[in-house]
Amino acid sequence: MLSVDEMEARIVRYGDLQPCRTAFIDAHTPGSDQKENFTIIGGGVSESPDQHVHIKETPGFNIGAAGQPPKCRNSLHTHRTAEVFFVLKGRWRFFWGRWGKTGEVLLEEGDIINIPTGMFRGFENIGTDYGMIMAVLGGDDAGGGVIWAPQVIEEAREHGLILGQNGVLYDTKKDQHPPDGIEPMPVMSDDQLALMAEPEAEHVVCHYVARYHDLMSLSASKPCEVIGATALIKDKPGFDVDFISRDSLDGNMHSSKRHEILMVMRGHWRLSWEGGSAVLNPGDTCAVPPGLAHALEPSMSGEASLYRVRNTDDRAGPTSVL
Q1: Does some domain include residue 252?
Q2: What's the CATH code of the domain at 231?
Q3: Which residue among 20, 202, 234, 268 is least enclosed by CB atoms within 10 Å?
Q4: Number of structural domains, the chain?
Q5: What is the pLDDT of residues 121-138, one digit of tens each?
Q6: Could you give the CA distance from residue 161 to residue 123 in angstroms, rounded to a whole number?
Q7: Integer angstrom CA distances of residue 176 from 148, 161, 162, 182
Q8: CA 207 to chain centre
Q9: Closest CA to 198 of 105, 102, 121, 114
């Protein structure tokens, strides 16, 4: 049994999110210097000691978010484990390839994309207001950090930022330098770059993107499996993702041996458990522990939707482009 206070400690409210503007190597690079990084569950992949972590316990994956004003972009990078995004607010362009010009896809609010490992990717807010995307990164340690495209590391150095081989970011404008014995992070070799995938846009849209309005229709009577071995987006990244709308659940108590992370997209949801209840609002993230009997149902009329992420027994290693 959990008390209301104990459950509240497992809920990260959207209004309580604490941003970091020095999280990554492109923090001074023009065009990327206004982005904000949020680490919600787990340490994530931030390269800065300034990054606040809301819930340190990881359920086999990490939850984070990126907030950016219009025309602000995140530089080209890749990870060793899966990276999944859904758009909470705004309109976003995701692009990929060695120079970010191989392909792109535009995502609206509620849309979700599962980006495979082994390909450079970046994203940009192309809306008219501040936008927010929520992220799921595979693995307890999120794959050991970010692997940047060579030009990102080189441009960052021109603006005073050096990433050490220890994964720590140093700002030479603040007289910070890697300590003795710590060399700057090397850029990828030509042989490594040649192995990076360059999929066409049609292929990525077909196999790795799900649209919000389709998910609303598919979840009319039960949760829609979005990412998983037999889901719409077939992958086994170490976690499953379901989409839940107003009529997906019957409101009865249930429990799971898995961690359940609830990420509200729209509407207000009442989470009840033996010991209390709480209302989850858009942008809130809730970590329901294994074995806790709980029920979930919309608390108000109108549109209601959320994503549910659960850990699996699959290894959180590299995924491949189909």
Answers
A1: yes
A2: 2.60.120.10
A3: 202
A4: 1
A5: 999 999 999 999 999 999
A6: 21
A7: 21, 9, 9, 13
A8: 18
A9: 102
